Amino acid sequence: MELLHIPHSPPLRRCSTPILTPAFSSSPSSSGESRWTRLKRAVPTSQRRQEGQLKGLPLRPRCASSSYPTPASDVVELPLFPLPLVLFPGAILPLQIFEFRYRIMMHTLLETDLRFGVVFSDAGSVAGVGCVGEVVKHERLVDDRFFLICKGQERFRITRLTQTKPYLVAEVAWLEDRPPPPGAPEEEGEDLEVLATEVERYMKDVIRISNRLNGKAADKDEGGGAAAADLRRGLFPTPFSFFVGSTFEGAPREQQALLELQDTGARLRRERETLRNTLNYLTAASAVKDAFPSSPSSPSSSS
């Protein structure tokens, strides 16, 4: 994993006083509905729609003079948000912005392109590869805080930090997956559709056994039954590999490694291995649970 040390900048804070926090705990409005609920209601339930298919969201048109061109363009400058998480293309990220320097950034973004770079931060360093987050919905509060709904877009590699105060700005180069080079090992030439189908099958098995261990019925809301019938939902292998990586919550370093790969096949193979190991662990845990079921509590005797 590529990490860049940030000179002349205070350590990036996590957990207790984060720069940005998910907006799940936002205070309710007078109607009893939280701001997060109001924002979330506008976001489609699937994170995996292609760009331009976000129904119900008034996407702001990109300015003609925007400094963030398409991925085919040369190196450009991008403001950065270091976070203790990894954003993938196509994923939805809710954020609350309250720190002064990032409120300054938001005022600038609202007048331009509404896009910024999300980079994984750890122990005062930031990863060298990140993902563009585009603001698709925002709410500005009276105290100048912001609630945001962002969607992951292009990946990028930081080539040079150009500004560290009041917030980070970097020159970045866009990243795209590349086909295996000629003469690559046979494993690297695996059919991507076959790989994606295998990964989807492992995901379904992991969901099924995990739900069983947790005593959850297989239903549409919990990822079993009809909901797990088609996890891909028509996605091509590359965006599907990003979706799978986004589900590995709690393992940001593994997610970062997946984000940095520029080979869809390599990403799917790594995800397949992770899911296979997870499935083996859950299967063993399920067997132990079946062999040693919890004994029902004995009824208390009446005196």
UniProtKB/TrEMBL annotation:
InterPro entries in the record: Lon_prtase_N, Lon_prtase_N_sf, PUA-like_sf
SMART domains the record matches: LON
Gene3D superfamilies xrefs: LON domain-like
Region (Disordered): 23-54
Annotated Low complexity bias: 25-34
Source organism of this protein record: Colocasia esculenta (Wild taro)
PROSITE patterns given in the database record: LON_N (PS51787)
PANTHER family for this protein: ATP-DEPENDENT PROTEASE LA (LON) DOMAIN PROTEIN
Residues annotated as domain Lon N-terminal: 75-279
Protein name per Swiss-Prot or TrEMBL: Lon N-terminal domain-containing protein
Name of one Pfam family that matches: LON_substr_bdg
